[in-house]
Amino acid sequence: MAFAEIRFVKREIEDLLKTSGNSLAASSREILEFADKELDSLQEIAKGLIPWSRADITLRSQISKLGNVLKQHAPQSESSGDPIIPKIHQELVQLKTTGEKYIEELYNSLSEKDDEEEDCDSPRTNSGEEMVGLVYEFNKLKSRLRISWSKSTQVTALVGMAGIGKTTLARKLFEDPNLADHFECRVWVTIGKECKFKEIPRRILAELNGEVIEEGDEDVTALRLKESLKDKRFLIVLDDVWDKYMMYHLHSSYQYERNGLKDALQDKIKGSQILFTTRLHQVDEYNVPHSSGLMIVRLLNEEESWDLLRIRVFGAESYPFQLEKFGKKIVDKCDGLPLIIIAVANLLSEEEKTVEYWAEVAGHKNHQIFMDAYDEILKVLLPSYTYIPKLLRMCFLYMGIFPRKYDISRSKLIDMWDADGFLEEKTYQLLYPSASKCLEELVSSSLVMVNEKTIDDSGRLGAKQIKTCRLHSSLWQLSNKQARKSKFCHVLSTSNDAFGECIESQCRLSFHNNVLFGIKEVCESVEDNCASTAHSLLCYGPLHKYQVPMCFGLRLLRKLDALRIRFYEFPMEVLGLVQLRYLALTLNGELPVSISQLSNLQFLIVNQYFSIRSDEDPVHLPREIWDMKELKQIQVMGSDLPHPCGASLERLLTLSNVSVHSCSEAVLKGMPNLKKLGIQIKLDVDDDNDNGSPLSCFDHISHLSNLKSLKCAVMNPEVVIPSLTPMSIFPRNLTKLSLSGMGYPWKETSKISSLPCLQVLKLRNYAFQGPEWEVEEQAFSLLTILIIEDTDLEDWKIGRGSFDDLETLTMKHCYNLERIHGEFGGFLGGIKLVDCNPLGAVQMKKATQDWKVDVHSSWEDRKHKP
Fold first, then answer.
1. β-pair partners for 585
2. With DSSP H G I counted as helix, E B as strand and the rest as coil, what are the percentages for the chain, rounded to 5?
3. What is the pTM of this model?
């Protein structure tokens, strides 16, 4: 059906081109020739469609419409203004838009046929190495390789960390019987780190027909390869590629990139395929990430991990069902990486398969089974580390100071890199101008996993940056081993870690067990062995409720992070650490006047121990804080800054968790370059407009022209001030705004909606209140993230053109919301309702044009927890 219709329309186009002669405008002739070529691609797809299937009928209908347009405008000539162009172009766009649907339809029909004909087509069976999991990914790639919208050579990259299964997945595709029948020629070439790009054509030729060509003229080699592949539909797999520009070198979309390999592999008729595996995310000539044609290979989920372990240990044999519980705990420590799961399984298969032994392994993350497995896979992981430049290796090693599976805040990580100073060298600044760039490079090298992203600090529209990240457990082991070996950093988890050669001359010490500070011998050993080398003392064990001694004998410390240890009062020994750049403490006392002796300090972070916190006895920062000119960040809890008396902190970028009294006009004028501000507000029933509401602090914030992020939270929102002053105007450059407990009427949001750069808005705990929120037209035009929690809102009216760029909407505890009028203008990638009125969920689906709305109930979630 569709195939015959395409042939008919093609004949009409050919007739029109022949009979029109010179009377047809050049632009019309060009688009008709383009349409003819596009119909060739559709014809290949139509050949495989099941006659009278839904896809076949739909495709025929679309082709018929294109034919009608041609008939209607065939008599038009150059003088008529070429109305044929927009009409035909419109139909072609519609055809291309729905093309992927036809391809998927064709694949489904073919896969059903394959299942009937081939019993060995499951990705869980293989003539070689068995592959477990990634069924969806296998089917999606198989579809892509067999059916291509474009007939030119298509390039696909499998990207992921070492040991994640890229090669296994590629091998499964390469050996698939259906793909073997589809391609006339298949070639598998292992590349590796040492192989240069110009050597690849010779390697392909050698695998293709055993032809060995000596090094010499690359053009001759490429020409010979082109002749060998001529008129053949081929599949070439390049395994283990170490070139982040490989997609740029081969992909047809980069028209100005010319090389012999690309020219030799270009097939514009048969629909040939190139598939390559790599640990490196692909970029173009300007280092802009390439997204088309990439598949990021994921980690295995819990069930897939258990299946892989079970099959490797027991094969097809039955197994004691009591082992499954502990087996799943064991694979949980493998973090879904097939390589480590297989290594652990091989070791388990040599031991007793008893409940007692498996329970012992499952109960200890540092069990010898895991340690031996990590040692086994080191040779596979190590190339990822040795490949990157020295600076990135230091950044990677630094991430190992945090505990295993620890979600690392990007902002904290970059602050600590900054305080460490190894990003300051000019040689490195040429390659990596910022710490953010270093982190992005580690992600691109598949060494760091991204947990969460947020809006970019630069404020660029649509730009995202990492919010939290972490190391995979196997890479965490690699980082720790290399750091300890190179004396870069040493992690102390037990008392044994404080003795022997491992502790000698270490530069950074990270305690993952804070109790160790209470052992006199441990502190003495640390100070004796590291006094002249250690410049970082970091405490990341569980929160310690009682004060313990610290290793203050390490006089060269530049960083002291002791937030996880409680101090009753400020430890005066800290004042002797004159090189400190980063100081983080948890204490309930006040900072001493002599804090200014730490003249090199850049980051000052002070938390309070909440269980004994007193609102009547707040922490006051001393006047001398204004003498500390190197400060970039001050983060204290509910504290007051004194009057600057004309002083200023020009380098201060972040001021967090301060009280409203620290936001006077004089104080804020002393911080002209402030980019991030966090305020804690305590309301009082005696506050009124005559005496000045605490919320009047906003009057001074508006003058901070460099402010990008503002967070204001009322700490006791149960205290309601009956008469509030109108909301002040916020700084125009704000990109992120978080408000909590303010109690303003919804109409005051008009002063927020007009902010030209605002992209993230979080409204929590009755930040605004009232039953109705009417959003003006064209409001919040650049907002991408909106979070609303705990509100009495009942009726939400959305003006036309509002929220045009909204990507994520989250609403929690909006029990009264029943009506939503209007529609969101943007494409919402995520809509989440938690503990909201069911009527509101129905209205949300209408307002979001039937995009999927994820509805959660915390009560139901708790019921289903094991």
1. 562, 606
2. 40, 15, 40
3. 0.80
Type of residue found at 128? G
| Alpha-helix runs per DSSP H in 49-134 | 54-73, 84-97, 99-117
Q: Which residues 6+ apart lie within 8 Å of 815 measured at CB?
A: 835, 836, 837
With b for 16 or more beta-carbon neighbours within 10 A and e for fewer, the 18-37 pattern comes to: eebeeebbeebeebbeebee
In angstroms, the CA 594 to CA 575 distance is 8
Question: Under a CB-based contact definition with an 8 Å cutoff, are residues 42 and 67 in contact?
Answer: no
CA torsion 562→565→567→571, rounded to 10°? -30
Strands in 627-753 per DSSP E: 633-639, 654-659, 676-681, 709-714, 736-740, 744-745
1 CB-near residues (< 8 Å, 6+ apart):
51, 52, 56, 57, 60
Buried residues in 193-226 as b, exposed as e (16+ CB within 10 A): eebebeebbbebbebbeeeeeeeeebeebbebbb
> Residue 405 — left, alpha, or beta (φ > 0 → left; ψ -120 to 50 → alpha)?
left
Q: What is the DSSP string of 802-821?
A: TTTT--EEEEES-TT--EEE
Look at residues 596, 634, 640 and name the one whose alpha carbon lies nearest to residue 619: 640
pLDDT digits (tens, 9 = 90+) for 670-703: 999 999 999 888 776 555 544 456 666 677 788 8
The string of pLDDT tens digits covering residues 634-681 is 998 767 788 898 899 999 999 998 887 788 888 999 999 999 999 888
Cβ(817)–Cβ(811) below 8 Å: yes
Q: Rounded CA gap, 394 and 479, in Å? A: 10
Q: How many CB atoms lie within 10 A of CB 832?
A: 15
622: its two tokens: 């001393």
* Closest residue by Cα to residue 102 from 47, 156, 49: 49
CB-based contacts of 487, cutoff 8 Å, min separation 6: 504, 505, 506, 507, 533
DSSP 641: P
* CA-wise closest residue to 763 among 736, 794, 731: 736
Degrees, nearest 5: CA angle 449-140-172: 85
Tokens for 361? 């392994």
Read off the pLDDT of residues 333-353 as tens digits, 9 standing for 90 and up.
999 999 999 999 999 999 989
Closest-CA residue to 632 (of 661, 605, 597): 605
* Segment 262-267 long-range contacts (CB within 8 Å, at least 24 positions apart): 263/222, 263/226, 264/201, 264/222, 264/223, 264/225, 264/226, 264/229, 265/153, 265/225, 265/226, 265/229, 265/236, 266/152, 266/153, 267/151, 267/152, 267/153, 267/229, 267/232, 267/233, 267/234
**Between vectors from CA 755 to CA 751 and to CA 756, what angle results, nearest 5°?**
155
Which tokens sit at 550?
Answer: 């610290």
Six token digits for residue 527: 């100070």
Amino acid of residue 301: N
Q: Please check the confidence at residue 80 and state whether its pLDDT lies above 70.
A: no
What's the chain's Rg over C-alpha atoms? 32
User: CA 102 → CA 26, 54, 141, 294, distances in Å?
Assistant: 32, 9, 16, 21
Extract the tokens encoding 59: 């495709």
Q: Strand 449-455 relative to strand 464-470: parallel, antiparallel, unpaired?
A: antiparallel
CA distance 427 to 433: 10
Judged by DSSP in three states, 134 sits in coil
Rounded to an integer, what distance in angstroms lies between the CA atom of residue 547 and that of residue 552?
Answer: 14
CA neighbor of 826 nearest in space, from 763, 781, 773, 787: 781
Q: Interhelix angle for 338-348 vs 473-485, to 10°?
A: 80
Give the DSSP H/E element, type plus range, for residue 560: strand 559-567
Neighbours of 687 (CB within 10 A): 17
Give the CA angle between residues 387, 388, 394 to the nearest 5°. Answer: 130
Neighbours of 297 (CB within 10 A): 19
Bridge partners of residue 295, in order along the sequence: 158
